[in-house]
């Protein structure tokens, strides 16, 4: 049986091919699964997708009509999949419920440190042999307050690094993490966390309850000189509201590895095209904003775990087994 994998990055392709070589043939495509590309999957019982795939009702119906019975997504998040339609169509849907939390947590800290110490501006200057320090002043993070919104595995890893910096720790989540509390974290209401934190980092999944969790009111509740980091899902932040606050000169820095309208942009080369997204175009012009292209998970360690879990999902489907990765079971 040949498996069709959409949205495969160049670094990812040899890992996927190696992982599947003793089990199934795999055809890797660099194009992402969308309504336009879905017909390519006709005749493939198993399709693997990337985090930015479009798996709404119409795409799922196209896949089902072409004979696809399993969608194996190579990510933890699944907000891009209409699970109700998949269930109605009798399709099995699986994801990767776990991979290295350190990959994302460490990258979140990379963003935080980069905007705090003006690394991008400094690097750009030194390429031009401009070695002035004007405008590059940062702040010690030791002794300041880190607010962690979402204290699951990734939030816990982020918290451990914050503890290493000697920061005061505030947390907000639906359930308290004992490991974070052992590090000295105090769980508080979200409004208090936003008001008192010098650094706010987001580590919650995107779902209807968390859509625009950081809205205009939440942004206004934050300190004027705070740092905001999002390495989770773009929809957690109301980007237009964020742009409005940035126009007012607020925030020491904002580090974003995700963007709420990133589909059709991130993972692609759009450097020779006019960007029609005015919000993103405005966002990247602010000198205190750093935007990266959803790469927090992109380490060799994490990718190997993601690919290995995807292989297990395929093998489980073929054997009629069900694991914690299954979102919609085989009907």
TrEMBL record:
Q: Could you tell me which CDD domains the record lists for this protein?
A: LDH_like_2 (cd12183)
Does GTP-binding count among this protein's keywords?
no
Which residues does the UniProt record annotate as the domain D-isomer specific 2-hydroxyacid dehydrogenase catalytic? 8-327
- Domain D-isomer specific 2-hydroxyacid dehydrogenase NAD-binding, by residue range, is 110-296
Q: Which InterPro entries match?
A: D-isomer_2_OHA_DH_cat_dom, D-isomer_DH_CS, D-isomer_DH_CS1, D-isomer_DH_NAD-bd, D-LDH-like, NAD(P)-bd_dom_sf
Q: What is its EC number?
A: 1.1.1.28
Q: Name one Pfam family in it.
A: 2-Hacid_dh
* UniProt key word NAD: yes
A single MF term (Gene Ontology) = D-lactate dehydrogenase (NAD+) activity
Please provide the record's keywords in A-Z order. Answer: NAD, Oxidoreductase
Q: Which family does it belong to?
A: Belongs to the D-isomer specific 2-hydroxyacid dehydrogenase family.
What is the name of the protein in this document?
Answer: 2-hydroxyacid dehydrogenase
